[in-house]
Every structure is written in structure tokens, then in C-alpha cells.
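chain below, 268 aa
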Amino acid sequence: MTRTALSLAVLLITAACASALTGPEVIAHAQARNGFSTWHDRRTVVTLENVEEGSGRTSDAEVYEKTDPHGEHRTLIEFVSPTDRKGTRLLHVSPRGSRDQWWSWLPGTRRVRKLGGTAGGLQRDEVFVGRDLSYGDLELLVRIQQWSDADATTTLEGEEACGDGQTCYRLALVPAKGNDEFACARYRLWFSRDDLLLRRAELYDPDDQLMKTITCEGYFPSGHFMTARSCSVAHVNGTRATITVREVAYDAGVADDLFTIGHLGDGN
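prediction:
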């Protein structure tokens, strides 16, 4: 091999090594470029479509969120349609490292209730509200992208085709022992290589069985942040949900008192 050829080979190897990313680096670069989890507060107007056992239901809601990478993620969902859902409120609090919690306020009862347990242990109206909790899957995607090395082990499993001529990085995230924020054993994320947009996610239950798949598409910019116009959630039991974002505003100064039990019970 000539000196010139040897020098070229060394340069190519060096470039290849420099371009190789680790799992945490893929997520860090995606946040720097697209801001998926770097905002502080967010207001969205969404349409929620839920399909279960062959029947469907569509609701419109205003969603307010505040997130702290080292603290809580708080969400208030206020339904504006259909008529029988109008005025219903859901409050979701996801503490860092601890199980998330939900509360509801229903116009019919005018009482705040904490949601929990399985469907068999819930009141009928709580089960009905529970079908609208699919927005929590989008919150989950924000939270796990905020995790540090102490919160989870993130591994780049490889690259693969992911539709529409795209090639994606496929990552695996395994929560650290003691990180009980969500009831999942692990996660898989697919980021398109060219633009580092999150295209797909898989959530695995505590028995490490696939529980649901989330696909996101139609990304559009809002300032420094990219938002998926539509995300679909497919559960292995056959239920499906689609969340469509109609409006979004980031870091507009959402007030802290929106995310209190007192505000939830105002009913105003």
C-alpha cells in the first residue's frame, strides 16, 4: 500500500469512528436539533380518537403541560367536546422516578377522584375516562428522553429501514433499578437518521412483553421545537388511539396553579 493510500485509509477509518454515535448521543442530538423534551411548558389543542372493540369515540381537548427534567411532569387536560364530555378535566402528575398519578373531575359528579387500579376495580365513569388517557403516552415519550444515565441504560441496537425510504437508529432504553416512573420493563425508540425525528416507539410491560406501539408523523416546526401532527397508539389487545395536534405553543408561561387539585375541582 502506498503512503497516499494508507493516509486515505486512516482518514476514512477516523471519519467512520467520529460519525458513530452511542445511544445517549442519538437522544442528545435529537433534543438539540428538535427540542422534543427541552421545553418548559406547552399548550396544545388536540383531537383524541379512541377505538375499542369495534367502536370509536372522538373528543377535542385543550392540554396544558409543565415539565422539569429533574422533577415532575404535570398535565391538565380539559375536554371541550363532545357535549357529554365537555368540562371533564384530567390532572396527571409524573414525579421523577416514582409512579405517575391521575385525578379526574366530572361535571356530573362535581367531585375530584383519584384514578388507579385495574378496570375491574374502578367505577364505571372512571373506566370511561380511562379510555381518554392515551395522551399520557405522549408525555411518556417526553419523560424517557429526559432520562439521564442514572435513570436508564440506553443502547444503540443498530440501524434499519423505517418506512418512506428512511433509515432509523433503533435504541433500547432499560430503566434503572428503582426508576418506577412508568410500568414498563423497557422501551425501543426509532429516530430517523437524517433529521433525528422520533418515528416510532415500543413499550414493553413488566413481563417484557410488547404492550403497545406508538408511531408519529407529519412533523412541523413551532419556533425551535418540532411537533408531530399525529401520533397513533396501537395496543396489543386491539385498542387504538390517535392524537392529532391542531394547535401548539411552547414556553408561553403556563401558570403553576393550573396543576392543582384545587383548580381541578373549581369546575369553572
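The first strand starts at residue 41 and ends at 52. The radius of gyration is 21 Å.
thats it, cya
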